[in-house]
């Protein structure tokens, strides 16, 4: 983990490896958050690519599952190590409960900064 902030202020954070992934904990476990907040996590990850004869793929569950509160908005921007021609890059984003396969939100395929974002329906 490189950087973590809540509402623009740097926050304590830690992570722990588990069989199903590496959850990130932000802030203080003894502090109750009673209103809406904006959390930002910046980090570097590796071993995320899958390779096949048809295409290479990066599958990433940005927010994780099983939250006790709703995630109203989520955005992920990926910084690639080398520029990839835009005509060679395809970006897809999915949102919803675990197992949902519908596309929701928007995607953009810049040469080295593909991104996906979603917003909960009102």
What is this entry, summarized?
The chain is mainly β. The chain contains no helices and ten strands. A hairpin with an 8-residue loop joins strand 3 (13-15) and strand 4.
Shape: globular
Task: Output the helix-strand order.
Answer: EEEEEEEEEE
Strand arrangement in the largest pleated sheet:
2-1-5
Helix content: under 10%
Category by helix and strand content:
mainly beta
Average pLDDT level: 75
Strand content: 25-35%
Number of helices: 0
**Largest sheet properties:** 3 strands, antiparallel
Low-pLDDT ranges: none
User: For the terminal residues, how far apart are their CA atoms?
Assistant: 32 Å
The overall strand count is 10
Radius of gyration: 16 Å
What is the topology?
Layout: E1 3-6, E2 9-10, E3 13-15, E4 24-26, E5 39-42, E6 49-51, E7 56-58, E8 73-77, E9 106-108, E10 115-119
Antiparallel strand pairs: 1-2, 1-5, 3-4, 6-7, 8-10, 9-10
Polypeptide structure, described:
- The protein is built from no helices and ten strands.
- With about 120 residues, it is mainly β.
- The strands form four sheets. A three-stranded antiparallel beta sheet has the order 2-1-5, with no helix packed on it. Strands 8-10-9 form a three-stranded antiparallel beta sheet, with no helix packed on it. A two-stranded antiparallel ribbon has the order 3-4.
- A hairpin with a 4-residue loop joins strand 6 and strand 7.
- It starts with a strand and ends with a strand.
- About 5% of the residues are buried.
- The mean pLDDT is about 75.
């Amino acid at each position: 983990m490189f950087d973590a902030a809540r509402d623009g202020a740097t926050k304590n954070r830690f992570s722990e490896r588990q069989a199903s992934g590496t959850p990130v904990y932000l802030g203080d476990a003894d502090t109750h958050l009673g209103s809406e907040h904006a959390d930002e996590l910046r980090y570097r990850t590796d071993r995320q690519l899958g390779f096949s004869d048809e295409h290479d793929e990066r599958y990433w569950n940005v927010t994780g599952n099983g939250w006790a509160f709703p995630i109203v908005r989520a955005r992920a921007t990926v910084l690639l190590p080398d520029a990839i021609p835009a005509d060679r890059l395809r970006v897809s984003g999915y949102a919803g409960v675990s197992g949902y396969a519908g596309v929701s939100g928007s995607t953009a395929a810049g040469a080295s900064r593909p991104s996906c974002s979603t917003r909960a329906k009102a």
